[in-house]
Amino acid sequence: MMTIGGPGVILSYLFSAVIAVIVAYSIAEMAVVHPVAGSFGVYAQTYLNEWSGFAVRATYTFVQIIAIGAEVTAVAIYCSLWFPAVPQWIWVVCVSAGLIAINAMQVGSFGEFEYWFAIIKVIAIVAFIILGLGLIFGLGPLRAVGFSNLTAHSGFLPHGIKGVWLAMTLTLTSYMGVEILGVTAGEAEQPEKTIPRAMRTVSLRLILFYVLSMIVMLSITPWDRMGNGVTGSPFVSTFSAAGIPFAGSIMNLVVITAALSSANANLYLTTRTLFSLSRDGYVSEALGRLAGNGVPYLALFASTGGMVAAILLAIFAPGRAFLLLYGVAVAGMFFVWIVILLAHLAFRRALSKKGVAQLPIRLPFSPGMQIIALTGLAALAITTFYVEGLQFSVPSFLPFLLLITIFYFALKRKNRRKL
Question: What is d(CA 181, CA 196) in angstroms, rounded to the nearest whole number?
Fold first, then answer.
């Protein structure tokens, strides 16, 4: 991202946050009316057509399984900073086993773990920003760094607006996960209250966690010395370069926690999406069975495919494992967000003006906002052809979409014969 956009990547994160907030609000509106497991898959099926309801859930399951593998691979990369002699696949196995154990517990226990993961992450990012601002302004014994690094190395936009736009193909993926608001609605108490409450903090958190953190990071360390972040976290690199004792190791622990939190949430999302597909008859009924504690345990084990892929890649291609997993998921998430926005447009058309006015949370300036987000997503999907490492994201996704479409129609024909 840094090599593509330079300091202008700050704008990339800001513009990406706008699209993410539009998607999140779209899901939140539908979730308070339809608090069901399967979330946007059910909404697409209800307000668009059956194919889109199946395709978006199948794609989301596929993408999240890959994302889980990418996150546990990232944890292994970060752990290598402390224990370089330990093979990455050992970390992947240990982390995977721990995440499966957490998700096999009751939903309340899962929420407890995720709460503490999130607390550690939030405290660390706030501390990073405060300490970073101390370095920038020279508080206490620290020498002021200032904001010169944002403009001193070939300017704020070393690659122009083109660089900012190309970087958005990567920064947008940082926000993919906002759809958890809808997926968890099926197990939330009083979703008409809890979902709007959670949604109102999303915009602030996105700006705080990403935009402000990026400003601090790029102010402390020149963008052309940041590296690509594949072999380690840029947060760790920033404090290590600043020469603050133990700060690099502390931030490494934090980014490990953040990666664990993301993998934990993705495993939950994938399990519930498979459960939803099973209950609608698209996949085996066995995946819809619940254990005594309410966990769809077979769907959980089916969701561990990304972890298996991560273990194999960590053994046979450790240097490229993260990039291989990451690149495949990008186009799929573009598709998922586009379907969500289209479903929301249809949802709004189905509601009367009185129904829209009674929603406890509403996306302003509809349908203009959805159209802006849809146009941006479509343009960014095309842009991936010009970004190194993502050139094959869309071409590799199209055969997958064709396969699940063939599977859908074959399944539909089979069900008709049964009837």
Answer: 9
User: How far is residue 227 CA from its own chain's centroid?
Assistant: 22
> For residue 282, which amino acid is it?
Y
The whole-number pLDDT of residue 391 equals 82
Beta carbons of 234 and 223 less than 8 angstroms apart: no
- The pLDDT assigned to 61 comes to 83
Within a 10 A sphere around the Cβ of 268, how many other Cβ atoms?
25
Which H or E element spans position 64?
Answer: helix 50-79
In a 13 Å sphere around the CA of 82, the CA atoms on its Cβ side amount to 14
**Would you say 97 and 77 are in contact if contact means Cβ atoms under 8 Å apart?**
no
What tokens were used for 188?
């939330």
DSSP-derived secondary structure letter, 212: I
Instruction: Return the structure tokens found at 361.
Output: 């949370």
Phi-psi sector, 38: left (phi>0), alpha (psi -120 to 50), beta: left
> Both tokens of residue 118?
């999130």
Whole-model pTM above 0.90? no
Under 8 Å between Cβ of 166 and 4: yes
State how far the Cα of 211 lies from the Cα of 171, in Å rounded to an integer.
Answer: 10
pLDDT score, position 406? 92
DSSP secondary structure string, 9-55?
HHHHHHHHHHHHHHHHHHHHHHHHH---TTTHHHHHHHHT-HHHHHH
Rounded to 5°, the CA angle 232-395-71 comes to: 25
For residue 176 the two structure tokens come to 């993919």
- Which residues of the chain are under the pLDDT cut of 70? 1-2, 37-38, 106-114, 140-142, 181-189, 191, 203, 226-248, 306, 313-315, 317-328, 415-419
The alpha carbons of the chain give a radius of gyration, in whole angstroms, of 22
